[in-house]
């Protein structure tokens, strides 16, 4: 169990520009490694963990935050980080949801921060954006659906006011479809689920 004591002890070695939930994850990983290798120097250990991962509280352009949070716990951590890093700032959310997750359970932590929810497709195993939007509307009226992730992203960006953030979150498949600049790669990635359904799992 990683608690504040671990975080305080390891804080000098953690990358300063990472979100709080990433610090906790790194502290967990470092604590486990040092349990088995107590002589491991924390400076060397965390020097290898400084790389930023795309779509983990990633800011590809000013005013846009992208994070692959896709379940209630991760979405709650994202909401905490948005509140901490951008206090008082409102957010327009572009969302995609996959598999059988409950939209309200997953996205409820975002609602107090939101000016609008835009639900789009998540390609592989994605839920129908119109159906997800209807569920979210029961708790947040300013919700709409746009099945095209690229168009939804561009429209949401254009609609953002100067004081707003656009936050793209939910399914990693949706994020790929919304932000990947290569149309061929987008199509290839989106085909994954169709190929699986047609041919079955590879033996």
Q: What keywords describe this structure?
A:
single chain, 203 residues, alpha/beta, Protein-Tyrosine Phosphatase, Chain A, 2 domains, globular, disordered C terminus
Overall pLDDT confidence: 84
Count the E strands: 6
CATH superfamily of the largest domain: Mur ligase, C-terminal domain
Taken in chain order, the helices and strands follow as HHHEEHEHEHEHEHH
Structural class: alpha/beta
The largest sheet, given as strand count, sense and whether it forms a barrel, is: 6 strands, mixed
* Beta content: 15-25%
- How many discrete structural domains? 2
Molecular structure report:
With 203 residues, the protein is of the alpha/beta class. It has 9 helices and 6 strands; from the N terminus they run H-H-H-E-E-H-E-H-E-H-E-H-E-H-H. Helix 5 links the parallel strand 3 and strand 4 (114-119). Residues 194-203 have low confidence and may be disordered.
In short:
Helix content is 46%, strand content 15%. Helix 7 (149-159) crosses helix 8 (172-179). Mean pLDDT is 84; it is low at 194-203.
């Amino acid at each position: 169990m990683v608690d504040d004591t671990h975080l305080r002890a390891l804080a000098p070695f953690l990358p300063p520009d990472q979100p709080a939930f990433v610090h906790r994850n790194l502290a967990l990983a470092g604590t486990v490694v040092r349990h088995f290798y107590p002589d491991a120097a924390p400076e060397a250990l965390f020097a290898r963990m400084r790389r930023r991962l795309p779509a983990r509280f990633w800011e590809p352009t000013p005013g846009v935050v992208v994070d692959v949070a896709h379940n209630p716990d991760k979405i709650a951590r994202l909401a905490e980080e948005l509140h901490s890093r951008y206090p008082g700032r409102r957010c327009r959310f572009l969302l995609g949801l996959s598999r059988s997750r409950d939209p309200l359970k997953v996205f409820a932590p975002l609602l107090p921060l939101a000016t609008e929810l835009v639900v789009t497709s998540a390609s592989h195993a994605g839920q129908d954006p119109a159906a997800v939007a209807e569920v979210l509307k029961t708790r947040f009226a300013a919700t709409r659906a746009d099945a095209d992730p690229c168009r939804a992203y561009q429209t949401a960006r254009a609609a953002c006011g100067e004081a707003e953030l656009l936050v793209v979150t939910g399914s990693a498949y949706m994020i790929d479809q919304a932000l990947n600049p290569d149309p061929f790669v987008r199509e290839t990635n989106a085909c994954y689920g169709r190929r699986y359904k047609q041919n079955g799992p590879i033996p």
